[in-house]
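Everyone, describe these structure tokens:
***
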Amino acid sequence: MTELDFPRPVRVVAGLGQVRVIGTVREAFDYLPHEAAPPGDEALEAVLDACRGAIRRECSTDEAHDVFVACARRRNILVDEELETLPGTADGARFPA
């Protein structure tokens, strides 16, 4: 475990049903800007600010993790942590473990 690891990995949709596991502040920082976001997206800016803060040790990796999860949930790209299902699927499509 490194100083920039999230307390637990975050699973997000990375396009066409692919799942990407984000396990560190740097991975979160690199991942989100590549996702489509409207100009001035406050959730995206909050994640980027939290990630920068964690990298500079101005906030904890737990805080950056929580902000990243909230943003992913808001964008509907967070993979349900308990059920491991693709968000928004009516049939409860499951991902392989």
Summary: Residues 2 and 69 are 20 Å apart (CA to CA).
